[in-house]
Amino acid sequence: MSDVVALLRAALGDAVSTEAAALDALRSDKSGQRTDAPPLALIEARSVEHVQRALRIAHEHRVPVVPRGAGTGLSGGAMAGAGELVLSTAAMARIRQIDAVDQLAVVEPGVLNGDLNRALASQGLRWAPDPASRDISTVGGNIATNAGGLLCAKYGVTREAVRGLDVVLADGTLLRTGHRTVKGVTGLDLTALLIGSEGTLGVIVGATLALTPIPPGEVATIAAYFPSIEEAAAASAAITAARLRPAVMELVDPIALAAILRHLGMPAAAPGSAHLLVQTDGSAAAGEAAEALAIITARGGAASLTLDPQEGEALLAVRRAMHPAMEQLGPVLIEDVAVPRSRLPEMFAAIRAIGDRYGMLIPTVAHAGDGNLHPNLVYEGDTVPDRVWQAAGELFEAALALGGTLTGEHGVGTLKRRWLADELGDEQVALQRRIKEAFDPRGILSPGRAI
Ligand SMILES: Cc1cc2nc3c(=O)[nH]c(=O)nc-3n(C[C@H](O)[C@H](O)[C@H](O)COP(=O)(O)OP(=O)(O)OC[C@H]3O[C@@H](n4cnc5c(N)ncnc54)[C@H](O)[C@@H]3O)c2cc1C
């Protein structure tokens, strides 16, 4: 193995690091989990050629390689352990082109989502995927995880916002997939296959992104409170059923709401209160908000509406404070199931029943516009205890029974692999592994992750 590091050093010079603190940081991502030992070396690629050289050497010597962006993942996909190399694309962070006419951007994978969007804003454009981590996560990582966010029910997840990719395969071959055109159906859609592949099929070294105009017009924001989370979830499902399309529609259960308000130093809500936050935008914002407000109040919600963008942002700050509020509670396993939107009340009821059965608080928020829930399982100690995994397993079963999925946006990574066949079935898992073999016959890219 040390021979491989020596070969990498000869080929890549100071882009290769074996510094102990740097390697130790690569043992974890933001999932709160950690591998047993540090990886062999970190390769901080600065060019496509660097990525190709590194992969040619790793391929020849059959050494596993874990691609990494900013390491903000929540599923353990970028965590690396003994005998593995980490190939970071974080330093490849140039915006190569912004084409305001065709509404495209061509970027390197390490550019931060927030930096890209700040560069686009002056031209009235944006790249729609808006993970809450947008200021700290890379476009390459967003693509590799098919990231979502608050706005994606209306504006789509990452897959809808990528036209083409430059990818280096496991043997060092550079491949260009997709196109710059709006339409394009030549051959199999490898771009779509690579999006969300969590580093298992290739290393993304460039992306052609579809941009959208920042919607003109007003923003209307509704903050509503209900006596229970099931009632709040039923109101959000009714808003969807009424064919309204809020840009943001978020649910916060009573346990999460109490923790957030405490964290922000705000007055507590009535005991048991659940929160529904709705934001409409574009030219129909005010009319849609009025309709949503009528649905909420007819269903017993206490609600207020504002057309002031700053007041709206202040109301959204409550939801945005979820992650820091959870960090105050101790180590947290952040889960990510999704169900059809009409089944949200049942899923919240299932989460509460699981929490009661295990004697555990499970503060939960949900992107109600797309049915994606984030139950947070709080635990004590350095690693997730078995009973917390058992409770998580019951959450997955409940979501699948409601016609849902194990992961809406965080990915399978290392943490959810054991439940993969429960959702996909053995035949589909076997087919996915054959597809992986076609891309990576020696199995060096992120082995043991995602598929
Ligand atoms: C506070 C917080 C809020 C979050 N909110 C959201 C949210 O709202 N929505 C959401 O979807 N996620 C969210 N996340 C999770 C995380 O930020 C996303 O998964 C993000 O897309 C990861 O990007 P990254 O650059 O950090 O990638 P990493 O964590 O470094 O890697 C993630 C995965 O992508 C692979 N990968 C990274 N770069 C490449 C590349 N160049 N080529 C091939 N594979 C690559 C890695 O191998 C790994 O499997 C949040 C995380 C935090 C900490």
Structure description:
- This protein has a seven-stranded antiparallel beta sheet with strand order 15-12-14-13-17-18-16, with helices on both faces. Strands 5-6-10-8-9 form a five-stranded antiparallel beta sheet. It has a four-stranded mixed beta sheet with strand order 1-2-4-3.
- A hairpin with a 4-residue loop joins strand 5 and strand 6.
- It is built from 16 helices and 18 strands.
- 36% of the residues lie in helices and 19% in strands.
- With 451 residues, the protein is an alpha+beta fold.
- Residues 29-30, 66-74, 77-78, 89, 109, 131-133, 137-138, 140-142, 144-145, 147-149, 198-199, 203-204, 323, 409-410, 446 line the site of flavin-adenine dinucleotide.
CATH topology of the largest domain: Vanillyl-alcohol Oxidase, Chain A, domain 3
For the sheet with most strands, the description reads: 7 strands, antiparallel
Return residue spans where pLDDT drops below 50 for at least 5 consecutive residues: none
Counting DSSP E segments of at least 2 residues, the number of strands comes to 18
CATH class descriptor name of the largest domain: Alpha Beta
Ligands, deduplicated? flavin-adenine dinucleotide
Oligomer: single chain
Q: Could you state the CATH homologous superfamily of the largest domain?
A: FAD-linked oxidases, C-terminal domain
How many structural domains does the protein architecture include?
A: 3
Please state roughly what percent of the residues sit in beta strands, choosing from under 5%, 5-15%, 15-25%, 25-35%, 35-45% or over 45%: 15-25%
Q: Tell me what the CATH architecture of the largest domain is.
A: 3-Layer(aba) Sandwich
Percent in helix? 25-40%
Rg calculated over all Cα atoms:
22 Å
**Ends apart, CA distance between termini:** 26 Å
Tally of helical segments: 16
Going across the biggest sheet, name each strand in turn: 15-12-14-13-17-18-16
Shape: globular
Structural class: alpha+beta
